[in-house]
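Have a close read of this protein, sequence plus structure tokens, and explain what the tokens say about the fold. Thanks in advance:
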Amino acid sequence: MTSANNAAIVEISQTANKFRSSIVLQYDNKYIDVKSILGLFTTLTSAGQYNLHVHGPDADEAKASMAQVFEKHGLAVNVVSE
């Protein structure tokens, strides 16, 4: 994994940890807590399409911030509206 991907993983995790909401990344049949750097390292690649599930008191703000971070690093993410 390149340092650019490492930077994306760290920024994604740090951004997620600013929120009280649960933020889970779905890729195929895997569900990863975005607040876990280790989970992201084992799953996140630039080639994937991911679904982001956000639940909690600050979900709307978290969805917007997370979408911006994924886009910044060129990672495709679909923010699921539930």
In short: The longest helix spans residues 3-16. The mean pLDDT is 89. Residues 3-79 form a domain with the Histidine-containing Protein; Chain: A; fold (CATH 3.30.1340.10). The CA atoms of residues 9 and 62 lie 16 Å apart.
